[in-house]
Design a protein that fits this description.
Length: 97
């Protein structure tokens, strides 16, 4: 596994991915950040969590519509699992601290 640092919105995450998925994950992160910027310009006054939720809904909709992009889906699934672990850890440390 390869450890990489990614930035989504205003937060940095350290995740582990298989080397063969690194490019896919980085492309997904780039797309996510571009969409966050797009949604921020369209929907002023929301917080970052709202924008990230909007992007995830958009991304899932695009993926369900494509149906044949297995590599991206597999890489995104790995990435989302690592992101979920990071978010759980961050939430736990906020609750405990």
């Amino acid at each position: 596994m390869l450890t990489i640092n990614i930035l989504i919105g205003d937060r940095s995450y350290r995740i582990k991915v298989e080397p063969r998925h690194e490019e896919v994950v980085r492309k997904a992160v780039k797309t996510i950040n571009e969409k966050i910027t797009e949604f921020r310009s369209q929907f002023a006054g929301k917080d970052m969590q709202d924008y990230i939720a909007m992007v995830l809904i958009w991304f899932a909709t695009v993926q369900l519509g494509d149906g044949d992009s297995n590599a991206l889906t597999e890489g995104l699934t790995d990435y989302l699992n690592e992101l979920e672990k990071s978010l759980d850890s961050a939430l736990e440390s906020q609750v405990m601290g």
